[in-house]
Design goal:
alpha+beta, two-stranded parallel sheet, 3 helices
């Protein structure tokens, strides 16, 4: 039987000594300039948000144990297929 999420979470908190949760709710207009372009297409809009989120994950991985993201919400809102969809 697979390990329960709560057990994995407790184990991660104990391993890292941290219970930090990072909520990732990016707003394209508030991203740092290096992630935004001028007049981006909907796909570029989502890719910029995803790139920002990847950088955030890399920079907080040492302390954060839980991440929550709404990137898929943005893609859905813009009509962008994500993953295996075509």
């Amino acid at each position: 039987m697979p390990e329960h999420f709560a057990d994995r979470l407790i184990s991660a908190v104990e391993r890292k000594g941290s219970a930090v949760c990072i909520g990732i709710d990016p707003d394209y207009d508030r991203l740092p300039a290096e992630f935004r372009g001028e007049n981006p297409s909907p796909r570029q809009h989502v890719e910029a948000i995803a790139s920002f989120c990847r950088e955030l994950l890399k920079s907080t991985d040492a302390t954060a144990r839980v991440f929550r993201s709404t990137v898929m919400v943005h893609a859905f809102r813009l009509g962008i297929p994500i993953g295996n969809e075509t």
